[in-house]
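job 3f2a | input accepted
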Amino acid sequence: MLIVLALYIVEGLQFDNGYLSSFFVTDNEKMAVEFDHCKLLLVDMKIANEKTLLVLLRLPLEEVTHF
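job 3f2a | predicted structure (67 res):
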């Protein structure tokens, strides 16, 4: 029995699968999507209605960010 372990370290965030549409591509030469200073919303709760979602989406606009 052979067990192989591998560790891949990537800079940024990388997904195994791509977007559903090529319209999301920002770099046509590499066929890749790249964003600078983007925000990512991760939640561990059910978003019951659009009012809750709007509150969550406004939070990054209210905070002061330094790049």
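job 3f2a | The mean pLDDT is 79.
job 3f2a | closed
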